[in-house]
Amino acid sequence: HSLIYTFNQPCPTCNGTGLVVAKETVVTQIQSWVRRFRGRTGEMGLTIRAHPEIVDFITKGLRSHLRQIMWDSLMYIKLEPDEDLKLEEFKCYSWKQKRELTEEFRG
User: Fold this and answer.
1) Sign of torsion over alpha carbons 59, 62, 65, 66
2) 20 to 30 A Cα–Cα from 99, which one of 34, 42, 71, 106?
């Protein structure tokens, strides 16, 4: 039993729980973030950086989550994959303000 802990360490993604956030949950968080951002600023352009798996998931298909988010918020969103982000992390950059402002519009 102690050898397991000697040669292993908790997973950095799930912190040893064996669970990670569902991709659908991350999409919902992004949708909520975009809604708050658009409502408070009125801005129409945004770049979102997210884990490559999230970028793939959110852009799949003709009726992708990304298209739906852009339609609902009436804004243009550019998605960029970022290997350095965890699956549940994303960063948002305002085109108008030319800066990252993810934390300013968290729920």
Assistant:
1) positive
2) 71
| Residue among 26, 46, 19, 32 nearest 90 (CA) | 26
pLDDT in tens, 72-82: 999 999 999 99
- Give the pTM: 0.84
N-terminal to C-terminal alpha carbon distance within the chain:
41
* Amino acid letter, 25: T
> Which has the closest alpha carbon to 79: 57, 101, 50, 45?
50
**Other residues' Cβ atoms within 10 Å of the Cβ of residue 45:** 12
